[in-house]
Amino acid sequence: MAETAPEEADRVGDLPHPRETLRLFGQEAAEEAFLSAWGAGRLHHAWLLTGPRGVGKATLAYRIARARLAAEEGGGLFGAPEPPRTLDLDPEHPVSRRVAAGSEPRLFTLRREADEKTERLYTRIRVEDVRRLKSFFQLSAADGGWRVAVVDPAEEMNANAANALLKVLEEPPPRVLILLVCHAPARLLPTIRSRCLTLKLQALGAGDLEAALKAAGVETGADAGALALLSDGSAGEAARLAALGGPALYARLVALVSGAPGMNRREMAAIGAACSGRANAETYDLVIRLVDILLARLARTGALGPPSAEAAPGEAKALAGLSPGPAAARLWADLALTLGGRAAAARAVNLDPSQVMLDIFLEIDAAARTARAREG
Predict the structure, then answer these.
(1) How many Å is the maximal CA-CA distance in the chain?
(2) What burial class does residue 2 get, using C-beta atoms within 10 Å of its C-beta: 0-12 exposed, 13-18 middle, 19+ buried?
(3) Measuring CA to CA, which residue among 174, 157, 175, 156 is closest to residue 166?
(4) What pTM, to 2 d.p., does this model score?
């Protein structure tokens, strides 16, 4: 029987791993900034890749890694070759094949690893993991070539790991490139941020998002528009939503709240029941996320007017009816903060998801009654 592949903390579901993904969509500005620095001889040893989750930060990191290592192989009797004008690399290039297979000896990925005894992923990147990175730099320095490290994501380092990495950044070995993928830069030590050059990636437009999903093998069909709106330009989030039936579930939530005040109790209970049990944990997380999106769109509607594009049939009418003006907008914004904290606390103590969802829906129903009174 074949061995099960170890779980990878930096892989999203069944999507191709970023090291296997050759194309990047919608991030031309970030790529050009890096190539310009390289071409001008200012290839800093540490780069911080920031931006929303799922927009291609890790994919860009591996594109950079492949280009740097392939350029190293391109040297010859007349010295190093000219810096590349693109980060594209032939998938049949030996570096491309080794990186995709996870067998490139000059590339190190620093991420959460699995406990050898339990085989479960640690919740943080540990100082022991950073020590392995330092050993990698020391052991691979003998050939005098370039080495690349990808930290993904950097904000998952614990305090000791962060301090250990900081020492590497303060006194980097020669000919190293350290690429820190980061969804939340504010959670990094300021001293780590100050020692990196930043590449800021942007949310994807609808066209780039659809192209990225198609390249990853994700079929969007008639849900392409809804996925673009609900994912806020994140290909990773759109893929998760597509896999879990997010657009259909969001449409169900919109239909439910359109009856507020006086929402259908049977439908509340049915959605709550669909979230119960360990097997439905992903559905529970998804519903919480979609409720948060719905409340945000309600608040935005009250402040700016109904959305020009709908994420579900009848959404614009439902949002306008529930959030007709600024007073309602403030109410929905406040409720989003309250319910978000309550849901997090409920998960921390393992409260029954069906009861949590029922409480959330009752809060929304009561808020709709208050919003109508305020705007009336």
Answers:
(1) 81
(2) exposed
(3) 157
(4) 0.88
> For residue 192, which of 245, 226, 153 has the smallest C-alpha distance?
153
Q: Which helix (H) or strand (E) holds 60?
A: helix 57-73
- CA-wise closest residue to 200 among 21, 56, 16: 56
Output the six-digit token pair for 171. Answer: 């006194």
Q: DSSP character for 187?
A: G
Q: Give dist(CA 299, CA 297) in Å, integer.
A: 5
CA separation for the pair 13, 175 (Å, rounded):
34
Distance of CA 360 to the CA centre of its chain: 26
Q: Report residue 320: phi and psi, to 5°.
A: -65, -35
Query: Which of 32, 52, 34 lies closest to 43 in space, CA to CA?
Result: 34
Closest CA to 355 of 284, 282, 253: 284
What is the residue-wise DSSP string for 315-367? Answer: HHHHHHHH--SHHHHHHHHHHHHHHHHHHHHHHHTT--HHHHHHHHHHHHHHH
Q: How many CB atoms lie within 10 A of CB 67?
A: 22
Tokens of 250: 């969001």
Written as tens digits, the pLDDT of the chain (376 aa) is 334 445 788 887 778 899 999 999 999 999 999 999 999 999 999 999 999 999 999 999 999 999 999 997 765 545 567 889 999 999 999 999 999 999 999 999 999 999 988 989 999 999 999 999 999 998 755 567 899 999 999 999 999 999 999 999 999 999 999 999 999 999 999 999 999 999 999 999 989 999 999 998 998 888 999 999 999 999 999 999 999 999 999 999 999 999 999 999 999 999 999 999 989 999 999 999 999 999 999 999 999 999 999 999 999 999 999 999 999 999 999 999 999 898 889 888 889 999 999 999 999 999 999 988 876 5
